[in-house]
Amino acid sequence: MNRASAPAAPAARLAAPRVLMLGTDPEGRGGVATVVSLLRQDGLFEREGVCYVPTHAEGTTTHKVGAFVKGVWGTLICLARRPEVVHAHAASKGSFVRKSILLALARASGCKTVFHLHGACFDDFVAGSNGLMRRWIRHTLEKSSTVIALSSRWADFLRGFAPAARVVVIPNSVPLPPRSDVEVQPGRILFLGQVEPRKGIYELVEALGLLRERFPQVELAIGGQGELEQVKRRAEELGVGERVTMLGWVTSGRKQEELARASVFCLPSHAEGLPMAMLEAMAAGKAIVVSGVGGIPDAVQDQENGLMVQPGDAQGLATALARILGDEQERQRLGARARKTIEERFESGVVIGQLSAVYRQLRDEVA
């Protein structure tokens, strides 16, 4: 069975779901798929009676359209069983359009609705939309029973754009893995994410060039998909082509091994929501170097549990990486504090409890 044929199955198994959740295929790639997979793995679906219906899948345009059509059908089946809450994971552009239509159907059916924003560039999406679309975006936010933002910064933006929206902050969650006994490889920098300019990958390659003389063992491992050939060419132009390893897409099982091997995790993005890869690196006890954009400052305090740099600043990035690569005690200190942050604020059980509280409040309003 292909992925696009799967959406109707959960609806058929759950005769009376309390929560209908909409989002991308959890077996796919990307941050939202990871979030949904972890919520299911860590017990939210069983605890709250969740029927999950994918409305998007990776692949060709035809495949994506087919997945959406099947998602609409699965949504209608679940809505006929009168769930108490419809919870949609959404981003920008097509993701927003799909989810906003389905949330409108849910409201028409008398359901409470939750709009859960994940998009790193949602503010750009709003700014670039025409007047009609901007009104529809604002309408969707303000008519939702609850809007979930990943960070205080995103919550402030949403409240400013849609003042009547009922916004709460619930971060992404990650499990706290056992401590690994895999040996750390000195000088190994790990990047995980979409390989594109928005993620700061080209500045990271430039920083690698600035570090090579001081740190003879330095190398960059890149996990993800996107502009792989372009990045490799840029590395060769800078004389560090042999120091760059393309890992391709890194599965969840392999991810923990790659994190364990790394000396430092780096994600110098220009825009973010609250990146799952960063949270997973912190949970693994890694020292991190990240840019202070989007929801990142909600999780990272500069020099306390990680180092923050300005986006687009290759020299500043190299300086921060050198601080960690050249000081084993600092590397261990930052990694330990990063893991402690996850344990206290972002561990799966904590976040699932917050989501359950939202559902409970909405159910109480119906009663």
From TrEMBL:
It holds the Pfam family Glycos_transf_1. Residues 48-172 form the Glycosyltransferase subfamily 4-like N-terminal domain. Transmembrane segments: none annotated. InterPro entries: Glyco_trans_1, Glyco_trans_4-like_N. Residues 186-340 form the Glycosyl transferase family domain. Keywords: Glycosyltransferase, Transferase. Belongs to the glycosyltransferase group 1 family. Glycosyltransferase 4 subfamily. This is Glycosyltransferase family 4 protein. It comes from Massilia agri. The lineage of its organism: Bacteria, Pseudomonadati, Pseudomonadota, Betaproteobacteria, Burkholderiales.
